[in-house]
Amino acid sequence: MEKPTLYRKRIIPNECIALKDDTILYQDENMLITSWITLKPRKDFHHGVSCYLFEEGYKISKFYREDGSLLYWYCDIIATEFFPEENKIVFTDLLADVIIMPDGFVKVLDLKELTQAYESGDLSIPMYTKAVTILGNLLDIVYNGHLPTLVEKMEALEN
Which of 79, 48, 87, 78 lies closest to 65 in space, CA to CA? Predict the structure, then answer.
């Protein structure tokens, strides 16, 4: 089976970018694991590995510095659309994010942008509700210490 083309769609700013340099490490009906380098050079991080969990509605990434040391885990709330006739998958970033530092500190990001997108009409009520629900589910998993179970496959492929 030919590997699909992956796209990252953003609401703020409104853009859709092909992730043409991402390498697909694993794919099944509910999961996609990729490795990647940053689209634009950055000083804070250089590359990473991402695990897209389609049904759960999030992408969990490990961000690495250029020297290979772990910077943090970064979790995006996403909506996934499949286009089999074009062999592509579009991941829409639903704005809310969670960062997990190596020491276990958890930070939720971009809730203001999530609300702004809803208020401006760029995000429908069902998508807003979906994003908040998924964020709550993900935080429950993180706070209950179950994140390692979600990313076992990603960890195995990394080593």
Answer: 48
Indicate the DSSP class of residue 156.
H
Picking from 3, 6, 140, 156, the residue whose alpha carbon sits closest to that of residue 75 is: 140
The closest of 140, 62, 127 to 95, measured between CA atoms, is 127
20-28, long-range: CB < 8 A, 24+ apart:
22/50, 25/49, 25/157, 26/153, 26/157, 27/3
Q: In Å, how far are 34, 43, 65, 68, 138 from 78, measured between CA atoms?
A: 15, 26, 24, 26, 12
Type of residue found at 110: D
pLDDT value of position 1: 60
> Taking a C-beta distance cutoff of 8 angstroms, is the pair 142, 98 a contact?
yes
The pTM of this model reads 0.93
**Does the CA dihedral 5-126-121-51 come out positive or negative?**
negative
- Give the tokens for residue 110: 């971009």
What's residue 43's pLDDT? Answer: 78
Locus of tokens 């994003």: 131
- What parts of the chain have a pLDDT lower than 50? none
Report CA torsion sign: 126, 95, 121, 87.
negative
